[in-house]
Amino acid sequence: MASGSDSGRGMWSNRWVFVLAAAGSAVGLGNIWKFPYIAGENGGGAFVLIYLVCVGIVGIPIMICEVMLGRTARSSPIHAMRKLADKAGVSRHWAFIGWMGVVAGFLILSYYAVIAGWALNYVLLTAQGTFTAISAEGAALAYNDFLASPIQLMFWHALFMVLTIWIVGRGVSRGLESAIRWFMPLLFVLLVVLLGYSFTSAGFEQGLAFMFDTRFEAVSGETWLVALGQAFFTLSLGMGAMMAYGSYLPENISIGKTVVIIALLDTFVAVAAGVVIFPIVFANGLEAGQGPGLMFITIPLAFGHLPMGALFGTIFFMLVSFAAITSAISLTEPALSYLVEEYNAKRKRVAISLGVMCWILGLGTVFSFNIWSTGYIVGQMTVFDFVDYLSQNIMLPLGGMLIAVFAVWVLPQTAVGEQLGIKSGFLSVLWKLLGGVVAPVCVLVIFVYTVLPLFSNLA
Ligand code: PHE
Description:
It is built from 18 helices and no strands. By secondary structure, the protein is mainly alpha-helical. Helix 1 runs parallel beside helix 12 (255-283). Mean pLDDT is 91; it is low at 3-7.
C-alpha cells in the first residue's frame, strides 16, 4: 500500500502521497457523476448550498476524526476500533463501526463498479467517434440502448471489477501513486477545458443560476438527508476508508491542514462538474432531474461538438474511469486489510473472493436498469436505489456520527490532543464543539426528521 516501514505495515512517504491517495479515494464518480445528478434531482442551488455546509461543518471534522483514529491505532478499521476501545477502557462493541463500514463499502462497491463500467464503455464509444456532432436525442438514445442490454452492462461491470481487484491484489504499489500524480492534474485540466466550453454555451447563465440560486421553497428534510449523505459519500467518510489510509500516515504531518486540502480539492471537482454539466443541459433542452444518465448524456454531447472532441472525450472518460478505480480501491481496503490481518490470508486471494462476491451482488444494480427496472423492493426503489440509499444516506452518516462521538467523548483526550497537535485552549474548544457536538448533532437531527418517519411509515 505505502512505501517506507513502520513495524512492517508500510507508510506514506510524505504528506503529498497521502493527499494524493486520499484525494484519489475522495474524487470519483461521486463528484463527476453523482453530485450533478442529485443536485439536479433536488432542485439545484439550495441543495448545493446545504451540501457545502455539510462538507464544512460535518464532513471536515469527521474526516479529521477518522484519519486521527487510523493513525493512533495503526491498523485496519475493525482492529483499530477494538484497540482504541481497549485503550479507552470501554466495550469492544465499538468495533461495530468497523463492521458496518465493511458492509457499507461492499454495498457501495457493488453498484459503483457497475457505473464505472459504463464509463469504461464510454471510453470506447467516444474513441469510435460515436458522439461526433451528435444531437441531444442521439446521445440519450445511445445511453438508453446501452442500458437496455444486461449482457453489455455485465461485461463492463466485470471488466472494471477485474481491473480493481488486480490492482488491489498486487498491493497498491508505487506504480499507482505515480499514476495518480499524473492523472489527477490531467483530470483538473480537462475539467477546466470543459468549463471553457460550457462558458460559451447558450445555457451558461441558466446553468449557473440553477447551480447557485437558492430557492429554499424546494427544500425538505429529505434534501438535508441527501446532501448529508452526499457529503459523506464524496469525502469517502463513515466507512473506514479514511481510517485505513490514516493508519499509514507519518506522525509529523498535520492532520487538520491535510484534511482541509483534500476537502477543498474534492469540492472543487464536484462544483466544476456541475458548472460544466448544467449549461449543457439547458442549452439542449434536456431535463436537469433526469437521474443517473445525466453525465453520460451531457458530456458526450459537449465533446461531440468540440474540435478534436473524440480524442478529448476519450481521455475524459479514461480519467473518470481512473478516478473511479482509485476510489474503488479504497472501498475494498477496510474489508481487505481486516481479513489479511485477522487470518494472515494472502492479499490476492482475499481480493479475488471479495471481487467475485461483490460482482454477484452488483447484478442487482445491473438489472435495475433493464429487466428489473420496475421490480421495486422498497416503496418505489429498485435494487440500485435501495442499496444506494441504505449505504449512502444511512450507513455512512451513522458510521460517521459514531466515529466522531468515539473520537471526542470516549477516547482519552490527551492522546487526541497530541495526535492533532492541539496546543491552545481555543483549538481544544473548537475541536470539541465541531467534532463532538455540531457534527454528531447534525447527523442525529437529520436522522430523526427523515429516517425515523420512514420506518414508522413502513411499520
Ligand atoms: N468518494 C468516492 C467518490 O466520490 C466514493 C467512496 C465512498 C469511496 C466511500 C470510498 C468510500 O466517488
